[in-house]
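Dear colleague,

Thank you for sharing your sequence with our group. We've completed the structure prediction you requested, and as agreed, I am returning the results in plain text so they can be pasted directly into your records. Please verify that the sequence below matches your submission; if there's any discrepancy, let me know and we will rerun it promptly.
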Amino acid sequence: MEINIDKLPDAAHGAVQISSDIPDVAIVVAGTVGAGLILFVLFVLPIWLFLHYRSRSRHLAPPPVVAPVRPAAYEDLAELARLAERIEHRLDAVETLMDAENPRWRRS
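Please find the predicted structure tokens below.
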């Protein structure tokens, strides 16, 4: 008895599976998308959320309170400027004495 494949019902044709070593394109795409999704969820998403909420909290935070400058602070700054000038004059005098004693002292 001879079986003609052309005369078999359509269901019989679909039941025959041909195995191959090449995976289907859908499986490759699903695997690639799945791996990308896993990497996104593990690495990118936590950093993204952290940076998002950190910047959001900075924008919503109240501005820092700046205390008004008291007049005594200006006097303190003026005193510091006078002291800096005195030290500069003293340093110039010391450098002049050192130059007179040993002209090459700056090179050593």
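Summary note from our side: Helices lie at 10-15, 25-60, 71-101.

Kind regards,
the structure core
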